Amino acid sequence: MKNRSFNKEDFVLIKRALQYIKPYKFRFISAFICILSGIAFGLIQPLLWARLLTSLFGMDYNRTLLSIFHISIFYVLQAVVGFLQSYLFSFLSENIIYDLKRDMYRKVLNLPVRAFDEMRVGDFISRLHGDASSIANVITNQLLNTVVDILKVIVIGGAVFSISVPLAVIVITAFPFSYFIFSRYGRKLREKNKEIAKVNDSYFSDIQESISGIREIKSLGIKESKFQSFLSLAADLKHRGINLSILNTLSQTLSQGVNFATEIAVLAAGGYLILKGDLSMEYFIAFASYSNQFSASLMNVTRLNSSIQQVLISLERIFGLMDNLSYSKETFGERRIKQIEGNIKFENVGFEYTENTPVLKGISFKVPQNKKIAIVGSSGSGKTTIFNLLLRFYNPVSGRITIDDNDIREFDEESIRSHISVVRQDSFLFNISISDNLLLAKPSATEKEIKEACMKASIHEFIMNLPQGYNSIIGENGVNLSGGQKQRLAIARTLLKGSKIILFDEATSALDNESQYYIKKAVNEMAKKHTVVIIAHRLSTVIEADEIIVLDKGEIVGQGAHSLLIHTNSIYKRLYETELSIIRESEERVV
After folding, report:
1. For 330, which DSSP code?
2. DSSP SS3 for 483
3. Whole-number mean pLDDT of the chain?
4. At what angle do helices 165-212 and 223-276 cross, to 10 degrees?
5. Which of 59, 122, 123, 376 has minimal Cβ neighbours within 10 Å of its Cβ?
6. Packed helices 25-57 and 61-110: angle between N→C axes, nearest 10 degrees
7. Which strand (E) or helix (H) includes residue 475?
8. How confident is the model at residue 102 (pLDDT cuts 50, 70, 90)?
9. 397 near 563, Cβ under 8 Å?
């Protein structure tokens, strides 16, 4: 196979990345003008210095002063242009980073839930932080500097040919050798950068998991184990980084060797031409400076290889994220439905997370408006999957789900999210105040509405006993609250939102008996105006449901009130009796 550094897909990625320059065309053009000015100064300076040196050796005092004056003016102009160029580079880089992160984060939020089930948090963080900065740096600094170097190669190449063709031929001869080095090491650098990117994802994921789970790490006594895991990943990154640096340095050293040999050849040939009288000392000094600029620019172009290979990996990862990482795009309908009655219907719904492994097998049931329905079954029977489908986190493989006889796939996202709320067994709370957590559900809520919701959820008294009351910061994911307090606060947030359909996913499992009593009372009150669906392992919490649906291995095996199921459904009876046995054993241990 032919060893090549770039292919068609790479240029497509680069072209796509360059679209981020469009909003800043004026500043990009201004930066380019600064670059052209810098090239012009770079061409004139060697001639001025050559004139100054020859004037000094020629004892021409007036010409020496004039050369110093000209050099001073050009120095000031270079300083001004350099300052403007630095500002423009910084402006472009930071804005492109911002735009990339903005687009990526929007895509992250719009990814289907399956992506978050299958990927680690560190993978997203690594792409958002490291890859965006890498791309912005190449687009601004290195891209523009490469343009500078390419223009220098062209312009200075013309200048050196105009001064001396033999010397110019010596300099130009070095290019094929430099290009060979560029081509030879390109693929290896690309592969090593891709390996480092994968390890970097694992590194970020490990750190994120350790920090998030620090309490479990401490309580399980596995600090040393997690530390060793971190050291292993950090060491892997270190060794891979060193190997990459060695490979990169080797390619640069070979390029430097080519340039050094070129300079020696230019000195030898130039001295010979001066002795013969075919070249003046002034032009030889200027040529030597041009030759150094030419060689440096040529080497910078070849040195760009390492950065380009790295940025191509980053581009693949960023645009892979923006293109949904090969996941089907999360889509919603176009119907904006402002009000619903809350009638839910599952019609022969089938679903599977993994192909040919069905989780739900053609289930059908109805949930009338303003009723309280419970779904029970052993672990893995498909209870939570029903909620995932109703919330449009996943789509059925077969059948359909309707609300008020409207297929939920026709609802736009806002309609689905506003009309359905869910209280989970471990609801997520944000690291902001209690009041702000509640206002997320209803930004226009009054203080009275907030307190009423918290009273119904039996959390108001606890909040008022906190030093800062409703302004208390709860910590990351409610770390400063107990499990029951977190769930009651999540219930209050759901009550405040006021959705017509409310889903409870084991929401009362962590509550004490007193709190559970008040929550059950609130749920019963809610069911008068809301459609309430409850997933429960503890059957004692749903005995009073209007109807109980019994699931087993993805199929509905029973449906009806508790009084009916306990006598007619063997699976429900077994679940209920097992729970009673656990309760009795617990009470006996307490006694």
Report:
1. P
2. helix
3. 80
4. 170
5. 59
6. 160
7. none
8. confident
9. no
State the alpha helices, DSSP H only, in 58-142: 61-110, 113-118, 121-126, 132-137
Burial class from Cβ neighbours inside 10 Å (0-12, 13-18, 19+) for residue 265 reads middle
Each residue's pLDDT tens digit, 127-177: 777 677 777 776 666 666 777 777 777 777 777 788 888 887 887 777 777
The residues near 304 (Cβ < 8 Å, ≥ 6 apart) are 142, 146
Q: Percent of the chain scored above 70 by pLDDT?
A: 83
Given pLDDT bands bounded at 50, 70 and 90, which one contains residue 490?
A: confident
Query: Containing H/E element for 491?
Result: helix 483-497
Of the candidates 415, 535, 552, 424, which has an alpha carbon nearest to the alpha carbon of residue 477? 424
| Dihedral sign, Cα of residue 268, residue 274, residue 277, residue 282 | positive
Characterize 115-154 residue by residue with b for buried, 16 or more Cβ atoms within 10 angstroms of its Cβ, and e for exposed: beeebbebbbbbbbebbbbbbbbbbbbbbbbbebbebbbe
Cβ atoms of 569 and 558 within 8 Å: the answer is yes
Q: What is the Cα–Cα distance from 553 to 519, expressed in whole angstroms?
A: 30
Strand partners, 433: 473
- Burial letters for 388-427: b for 16+ Cβ neighbours within 10 Å, e otherwise? bbbbbebbbeebebbbeebebbebeeebbebbbbbbbbbb
Q: Which residues, at least 6 apart from 554, have a Cβ–Cβ distance to it below 8 Å? A: 358, 359, 360, 361, 363, 381, 382
Q: Which helix (H) or strand (E) holds 442?
A: none
Predicted structure pTM score:
0.63
Alpha-carbon distances of 476 from 299, 479, 558, rounded to whole Å: 50, 6, 41
Question: Would you state the structure tokens that stand for residue 571, as one six-digit string?
Answer: 């699976």
Please report which helix (H) or strand (E) contains residue 584, including its range: helix 570-590
Crossing angle of the two packed helices 281-322 and 223-276, in degrees rounded to 10: 150
The DSSP result for 148-208, as a single string, is HHHHHHHHHHHHHHHH-HHHHHHHHHHHHHHHHHHHHHHHHHHHHHHHHHHHHHHHHHHHH
| HSE toward the beta carbon, residue 147, CA cutoff 13 A | 16
Non-local (6+) Cβ contacts of 338 within 8 A are 415
Q: What is the dihedral of CA 232, 236, 241, 242, to 10 degrees?
A: 90
Specify which residues 282 forms β-bridges with. none
